[in-house]
Structures are given as structure tokens and as C-alpha cells.
Amino acid sequence: MGALANQPFVKMNGIGNEIVVVDLRKGAPAIAPEEARAAASPQGAPYDQLMALYPPRIAGTDGFIRIYNNDGSEAGACGNGMRCLASLVFNESGKDALTFETKAGILNCWKAGDGLYTVDMGPPRFKWNEIPLAEEFRDTRAIELQIGPIDKPVLHSPAVVNMGNPHAIFWVDDVNAYDLAKFGPLLENHPIFPERANITLAHIVSREHIVIRTWERGAGLTKACGSAACATAVAAARLKRTERKVRVTLPGGELTIEWRADNDHVLMTGPVEFEFAGTFDPQLFDKAPAP
Ligand SMILES: N[C@@H](CCC[C@H](N)C(=O)O)C(=O)O
Predict the structure, then answer these.
(1) What pLDDT, on a 0 to 100 scale, did the predictor assign at position 237?
(2) Can you say which residues are annotated as belonging to the binding site?
(3) Residue pLDDT, tens place only, 105-139
(4) What share of the chain is helix, strand, coil (3-state, %, to 5)?
(5) What InterPro entries does the annotation carry (predicted)?
């Protein structure tokens, strides 16, 4: 028996990023890739990311979180999912601040008022081997990568950032003018990204406002990707094109992102929405398709 059969779940969204939260604090094995894929099927609870909450492994933390994409792969960070999961733990615990261990490190969350939640996503990483990239680039503010005809590229020179996950950001004038469903998978799986990458189109509207659309590694087109919003804000500020605090508009809503000058951490603030609660049918996992 795997981890998810008969397991209660909560379906939520973070500005349209489809999130399923599973509370495994009573103990359960790690979720196998085929189980994660079966859980995301139409007979399960279709999601972009599944957030699995395990008992704390480090004293002083509120739990250990593992994050799964709907293709069964594991993600390091998920900003929208963190807000959703934290909102549930805030409700049950009455606490004002929470600390979770994730693959991307220790993340703190707190209530920001007006139904908003802030997640401290930690510091961004910029070195080529931290993104990671397959070859050395000394300056990751714009790397040599393009798609389309060699003399007339459709997209080119992305900034790359690791924000718990690998991100590539292409600067454009209109995020809706590109077929991201076509270019996204090509770029996500480009050999320059040995661990694949999240692909974002970003339009800088002003020094305080950016509009983005993201093709997510392991999940495809989503209405919102919180870590992409963080990565984009950081990349734009690094190029001195924006302030360190910006409003980011995504297809599903808005986030406020602040790259702190004092400790280098990136703070993401936004809402969450509860949709429904359910229980995973064990038969779903009997029929789990082979990878
Ligand atoms: N939607 C998430 C990011 C999801 C992780 C990503 N697909 C990956 O595997 O890198 C967010 O809100 O940050």
C-alpha cells in the first residue's frame, strides 16, 4: 500500500495554481511518482502541485514538506502551495508564524493580514552550477540561449535564477503574444538545463510592476507559479530594471514580491482559496499507470 490510498486531502488554489494538500503527519512512506500521477488524474484530484506534510524532522519546525508535480517529479519549492498548506496549519494551530523544512531549505510563513499570507522563499541563487546549467556561464543575468531561426530568434537571452527550482525568464513586450504551450516544453527540456527548468515570459510594465506567464517544469501551463514570480522579480531587479519590491501579475491573480536588501531573502505575499475536501479512492492507485 502506498502513501495516498484512503488519504484525506484538501483541494485549494493559490491565485489559480491548482494545489492539493495531504496531511501525512501521522506517518506514511514517500509518494511514488506513479502514485502522484494517479492522484492528479481526472478520477483523483487534478492538481499542478501536491503538497505532502510529514512530521517535523528538525526541532523547532512545524513539519517537513515534500512537493510533487503532476508528472510525478518532485519540486524543491512551491510558493503558492506553501501559502495554501500554511493557511491550513495556521487555522488548526492558532499560531501566527510557522516554519517548515522543504527540499529547498527552511521556509518561514506568516499571516500578512486581509487574508494574505507571506512566505519567506529564502535567498535566490545565481551561479551557473546552482541553477543548474550544463555549461559554465559567468553572467547568468542573460545567457546564450535562443529558440526560433538563428538570425531572427523568437525568444532569446533569458535570465536564469534558482529560487528553490530552476527558472529561465525571457523578457518580452507582450506575454500573450507567444505560444508558450509550444515553446515551453522545448525550453523546459533543453540540454542546457540538466534538471529541466520552469520557463517564464515576463513583461516589465514599470519599476514596480511585472506581468508574467509560466510554463512549469513537471506541470505545464499554470495560472500561477509563485517561485517564477520570485525569480522574475529578482532577475529584473538584478538588471536594475525594477525596484526590489514589485507587484507581479500572473494569469490567475497578483503577488507582491520583495527581495530584501538586508538578508537577501525573497518574500512572497498573496491569497489562498479553499475549494473542497475529499479522500483518495484506493482503487485509483491499484490502476496506477506504469511510468
Ligand atoms: N507552482 C509552484 C512551483 C512549482 C514547482 C515547479 N513546477 C518545479 O518543479 O520546479 C510555485 O508556486 O512556486
Answers:
(1) 98
(2) 17, 49, 69, 79-80, 165, 198, 216-217, 226-227
(3) 999 999 999 999 999 999 999 999 999 999 999 99
(4) 20, 35, 45
(5) DAP_epimerase_AS (IPR018510), DAP_epimerase_DapF (IPR001653)
Residue nearest to atom 2 of ligand 1 (CA): 78
Question: How far, in Å, is the centroid of ligand 1 from the Cα of 152?
Answer: 31
Nearest to 166 by CA among 123, 124, 224, 222: 124
pLDDT at 287: 59
Tens-digit pLDDT profile for residues 52-92: 999 999 999 999 999 999 999 999 999 999 999 999 999 99
Q: Give the right CATH number for 7-121+273-285 from 3.10.310.10, 3.40.50.150, 3.30.70.2190, 3.40.50.620.
A: 3.10.310.10
Cα torsion angle, 197, 201, 207, 208, sign:
negative
Q: Is 84 a residue of the active site?
A: no
What Cα–Cα distance (Å) separates residue 270 from each residue in 7, 74, 110, 112?
28, 23, 11, 9
Match 499560531 to its residue by C-alpha cell.
95
Told to judge if 78 belongs to the known catalytic residues of this protein, a careful annotator would answer yes
CA proximity to 161, closest of 120, 186, 132, 137: 132
Residue 31: DSSP 8-state? P
Locus of grid cell 526541532: 59
* pTM of the complete model: 0.96
CATH match of 128-264 with 3.10.310.10 = yes
- Decide if the complex's ipTM is over 0.90: yes
Distance (Å, whole) CA 223 – CA 167? 16
Domain segments of the chain as ranges? 7-121+273-285, 128-264
Residue (of 156, 71, 124) closest to 233 by Cα position:
124
Nearest Cα residue to 25 out of 57, 59, 69, 2? 57
